[in-house]
Amino acid sequence: MTPNNVKLCMGCMNPLPDGEDKCRHCGYQKGMPHSLTYLAPGTVLKERYLIGKVLEKNSEGAAYISFDQEEDKKVLIREFMPEQIAERNESNQSVRPKTGYERQYKTALSDFVELSRQLLALERTNGIVPVLDRFVDNETVYVVYRYIYTLNLSSFLQRNGGELTWSQAKKMFLPFLNTMSQLHKKGIIHRGISPETILVDQDNKLWLSGFCIADARTEGSDVGAALFDGYAAPEQYSLNHWQGAWTDVYGAAAVLYRTLTGTRPADGSSRRISDDLCPANELNRKIPPNISDAIFSAMSVTSEKRIQSMDAFMGILLEEGDSHTAVFESSKVNLEVKKKKKRQKKARVAIWAMLVTFLILLGLMFWFLKVGGFLDKEENSRPAQSISFPDDLSSGANSVISADGVPDFVGMNADIVKGDSAYTGRFEFKIVEDFVEEDYEKYSKGTIYRQEPEKGTPMPNKGQVTLYVSKGSDKIALPPLEGLSLVDATKVLGENELAYEVIPTTDSQAESGKVFRTHPEKGEKISRKSEKVYLYIKDEGAASAASNSPSSEIYRGPSVGIKRGSDSDDDE
After folding, report:
1. Taking the model in full, what pTM does it have?
2. Which residue has the higher pLDDT, 265 or 373?
């Protein structure tokens, strides 16, 4: 249900006046056509989220304007629906891989789940659009983002003459670059920084949105690329090049180039063939030379020659004398690049040496077996034995099953884990559901918050792993119970998995058979694991039953058997 039974516009989730089907805010009209590839406006997921129209879509999936009916607020929900390798069953709305793409779909889905886990773990990192929830429905995964009232940077620039001065941009971009630096330190690479994925709020603060899996930001992948020409780094146009923090450095520098010059830079693909990027201060003479040089260096076509980190990029931008900020020596950037090249050269030499050694040993072993006649003796020939792993292992850090130990399941959705043959083929799972006393916002319902044994613990095949799965917050606001019969009151408590005790009262104002008052009072927070609700009722039968109860005078509702903490009485 929508809040207070108000009809909402499926285009913007603003209330519609009675009798009107066309929204005055966004122009959306009820019954407008929609693609059958995506969910129909008006769909409700998880009995909570009302889905509106598609706001944005790419090769990974779609983002819908939505409404959280429990919290009474707008949200943005992203659905994993890679239409190049998946399709929707029109009869039940479920998403399934296309024939022949089962493995690619499973790998991409696992990467999507891992990315959402990482974003949930960020909690409230400044400048990142927060992830509020994720869940499984329609046999796919949905991620719920906070809805922020913003413009994208492209629209913001259009409203401000097409470009900004360095003095104006500096105040906006330096905090944003610092946010990116913090993101990289947590192992997250965005790969899609552009004026479309950077949002500007009413305080001119920049927010980063548009997170996608790596395959959706790389040309030639099975999922299909969703690249922003002019802002995607050259290495994103090939499957044969490494991507890293330097990839986002290129994107951030390209956005800054566009912001200061009003001109979109040439796309990275064409620059690999003919690089004729014009320095920023040749397009706008007001741009300080050191800022133009920093942008130019951060947009080097060759990733090894490029500024390697956001910290280094910020340091060079802050070399301006009037910044009143610690100066970053540019020689450190060159030293960093040189060290990286040296490490890469050593790594390549080591790999070639190992490969040559392996081939020599393989040849010697073959010669020995041939000379010794082992290859000709049928009775001594045995099939080669190798460790077999499931074909559909994903590349996500949390999803790769190592032969050495138990993966880190904490933060993952339990349904995804239980439904993944890569895990179930290796482990037996015991699921323990309970309410979470702390970090319940981080570990929403269905999320694994603890595991036994811990990650990395050596374990043979089919060893048992206990997964502790969140049932949501331990704390709950007590529903209104006063005036209800004992049967109705205990039913409400049972549905909310709350323990209770009946306390007989002789208050003359109490109505027989009805709950007169409760402790705690309605609306107060109460722990489902360690506290109970006291029901004061004028009912001789209930009073007698309560006094004769063999279990510490506690009545329990339908939630019998739920694990609870101490039932010691509260002081009155």
Report:
1. 0.59
2. 265
